[in-house]
Amino acid sequence: MNIKEIFHKRNLVFSFEVFPPKNNSPVKSIYRALNELSDLKPDFISVTYGAGGSLINNKTTEISSLIKNVYNIEPLAHLTCISSKKDDIDKITERLELEDVSNILALRGDDNGDSRKDFNYASELISYIEKKKRFNIISACYPEGHIENKSIDMEIDNMKRKIDSGTSSFISQLFFDNNIYYDFLDKINKNGIKTPIQAGIMPVINKRQIERITELCGAKIPHKFSKIMNKYEYSPEALKEAGIAYAVEQIIDLASSGAQGIHLYTMNNPYVAKRIKENIKTVIKTINN
Fold first, then answer.
1. What is the pTM (predicted TM-score) of this model?
2. Residue 98 burial (CB count, 10 A)
3. Sign of the CA dihedral with 184 first, then 185, 188, and 193 last
4. Beta bridge partners of 105
5. pLDDT tens for residues 6-61?
6. Which of 72, 6, 9 is nearest to 43 (CA)?
7. Which contiguous run of DSSP H or E holds residue 97?
8. Which residues are catalytic?
């Protein structure tokens, strides 16, 4: 099913994100996570873009095919463009189509100085894929502004360009302060943007990991959450439980405030996803009835 259609059928879309194994690890190393995550019956599972390897044998494509054709769940394949030529994108999209994968999360990707100049922005990739008329295209948005430019006005302009290029919905960058997200939604609504948006939520179970991630993406850590991390930094089990509880609180607040979707960054940890789904399943069921 096209993910665009899922938004028409659900008041609250709930999905997961997984990432491919490292290049020297077999794809089967993700089977356990997929087995357990599929049992939770998400609306779809997205697969981050795996760096390295050949374009045709990219693990993102292989895992997306598994999700679709083995687990019977709709996959969302991430695709970055800044270091790709049009021919590269053609090869990947042809492979995705052969595997019956019809949803793509179109991203620029990190600019490490190796841009090949066919694509400089995600909107250019979106426009290029849209011309094929074979894929539903989803994009990223940044409630706190992009790490390279924190201007929310510029972020809104970028979202409009993505919509005009063919985006059907958005998944937000992770955030830990719901008030920041609500302010963001208020601003985009005032700018006439009605395209569905899923809130990106990442449960924190490791302090160093989240500090590294927030440094890369620029998400703010609110004082309330900082206290939790500092309190349980040296007690992994306590931090895991506190991180799960914080994510559940975020999700219930978002769902109760009319969020259109929740996208859970699982970090390939089915235990955490399972605990969160168990805590919110009645909320999701009530909203979607």
1. 0.94
2. 10
3. positive
4. 78, 138
5. 999 999 999 999 999 877 777 777 999 999 999 999 999 999 986 544 454 578 99
6. 6
7. helix 86-98
8. 17
